[in-house]
Amino acid sequence: MAFSAQNRKGTMAGIFFVAIFAAAATFVADLEHVKALGLSPLVIGIVMGIFYANTLHNHTPVEWQSGITFSGKKILRFAIVLYGFRITFQQIAEVGMDGFLVSLIMLTSTLILGSWLGTKIFGMDRDTSILTASGAAVCGAAAVLATEPVLKAEEHKTAIAVSMVVLFGTISMFLYPVLYTTIIENATGFLHMTAREFGIYVGGTIHEVAQVVAVPASVPGAPTEMANAAVIVKMTRVIMIAPMLIVLGFYLAYSAKISGGEASGKTKLVIPWFAVYFIFVAGFNSLHLLPQNLVDLINEVDTFLLTMAMTALGMGTIFSKFKGLGLAPIYTALGMFTWLVIGGFIVTKVVVEIL
User: Fold this and answer.
1) Contact call for residues 134 and 147 (beta carbons, < 8 A)
2) DSSP secondary structure code for residue 186 in this structure
3) What is the mean pLDDT of the chain?
4) Among 75, 147, 329, 334, whose CB has the most other CB atoms within 10 angstroms?
């Protein structure tokens, strides 16, 4: 046990050690040039954690490992629950049925496509494939973090998925404004999008929340409705983390039964309760019972806790574990990226025109 009498001191030291890294990541992410790149503290944290894992790992007390593991498991679940304070059900209602359907279609199709490409086409293991797909389908690094406990995946697989989110999410952040100003804004017919339609397209297809915010800000003279639609659709995707994880839990239980669980007559269904609590927190937040300044403070604390979790996962990522994967993660992520950019455009146009 992490907080047993003999482990308590080492666990606390390990948690404090991770917190120091997370604080440094938060400081770096707040620097002007880093902020302009749309890199969140979570991404900086896992990079710092990976650097530590492959350089200084053997120079720290082994007793601290229980605290690092606690940060990557227990603190992670708590932080995902608190993530519900970023969302209200009113935001989902505000975006309209077209924005909701675009989010649902893109999340479902990207998750299925990424999992299939990874396992069936490029020969990756199931966990890495699903983690990579969840990052592209839902909300980047936070979705990867939320999916990891359900799969009980190894840290290096989480790091692979996050790295794909960073790579292709960053490309998206620079590509979309160029697409809008050079083609979409001035085109006629099917290729043309209004500011609101482009906002739905951005929110329904780009990986990270920070990257979604950055795109409308990078479009010269972009109307407010573009940014509003983008952020609200994105937050709709975020709240879909919970039902996605619950469905994933049922899928894993069913897969285990098909592959051999029937022999014992028992197949354990893993329900990600932290995802259920996440929905309750979002519902509570929708009642607006807490003052906004307190909600903002909770969200700042939550970002720090997520950064700690990401840093801890990075600390368990040893490069030697990547051997054998080759370029499969990049090919898988590239396939999803192509679908998000091209397929997402078509889905957005069709859904908006129908509704």
Assistant:
1) yes
2) T
3) 85
4) 147
pLDDT more than 90, % of the chain: 35
What is the DSSP track for 205-221?
H-S-HHHHHHHHHHSTT
Residue 162 in contact with residue 231, Cβ under 8 Å? no
Q: Which amino acid is at 136?
A: A
Looking at residue 108, its pLDDT comes to 94
**Does residue 209 contact residue 238 with C-beta atoms inside 8 Å?**
yes
pTM: 0.74
* 8-state DSSP, 271: -
Provide the pLDDT for residue 267: 46
Name the amino acid, one letter, at 153. Answer: A
For the record, the structure tokens of 186 come out as 């001035």
Amino acid, single-letter form, for residue 142: A
Please give the structure tokens belonging to residue 241.
Answer: 């983390």
Report the alpha-carbon distance of residue 126 to residue 114 in Å, rounded: 11
Among 166, 167, 191, 168, CA closest to 180: 191
CA-to-CA distance for 138 and 146, rounded, in angstroms?
A: 10
Please name the residue that has the structure tokens 């909701």.
100
DSSP state of 59: G
DSSP 8-state code for residue 319 = G
Q: Which long-range contacts (CB under 8 A, 24 or more apart) does 141-145 make?
A: 141/40, 141/42, 141/43, 141/46, 141/165, 141/166, 141/208, 141/310, 142/42, 142/80, 142/83, 142/209, 142/238, 142/241, 142/306, 143/241, 145/42, 145/76, 145/79, 145/80, 145/306, 145/309, 145/310, 145/313
